[in-house]
Amino acid sequence: MTSVEITYIGGPTAVIAIGGLRLLTDPTFDAPGEYPVGARKLVKTAGPALPAEELGPVDAILLSHDQHPDNLDASGRGFLQGVPVTLSTASAYERIGAPVRALGPWESTELARPDGGVLRVTAVPAQHGPDGSLPLVGEVTGFVLSGEGLPKVYVSGDNASLDVVREIADRQGPFDVAVLFAGAARTPLVPDAPLTLTGEDAARAAQILGAARVVPLHFEHWGHFTEGGPALTKAFAQAGLTDRLRLPEPGGAVRVP
Asked: For the whole model, what pTM was predicted?
């Protein structure tokens, strides 16, 4: 089985190199500052470790959702136009149009690999907050990457629900690699519950998924994240899963499994 290389750009943004293809998650390349979302503002505390122009070719974008600036910002929207396809939600397609291609839950598409094989990308559910939060936060998707001779990879997007994780594990698991959006994001929009996985829930998700390796994303670089790298490290240690965690450094690459 070949490996996967994940280069961490910052926030939710990373390049996933798998099967000879390079996929970019949730493009965010804007500078630090305040970014409006409705009547609120999200505060970005650090810029990208690598600028967009230094990323090299990207074969496809995995966009969990487009409606929040910490997942798709102005620079990221521009970046979409230079990539062959962006896979995302039906809502994102309605708002952006081409090059977005909508994938509904459990729908798949295939990307041609240089070796003549294919990389299958399957959209999977995501719940961006507690039960009942969909009308407030909007539609989100996760992804599963699979193919002959390749590790199976789960990319969670902004999901906070372990019930969703269990459904994905039941239908698609086990996984070699889980790319989990974590950070226990909290905003006044949903004041009583996190909008993404806590460190404890990320560790539990790793167990549910049967994931041999976990690479967290979206746990830092924005003011609304309440649990950063140290909290993730502690949670995985307490769960006896230190050997599974691969905490990335901005600008660095993690090769897994």
From this structure: 0.97
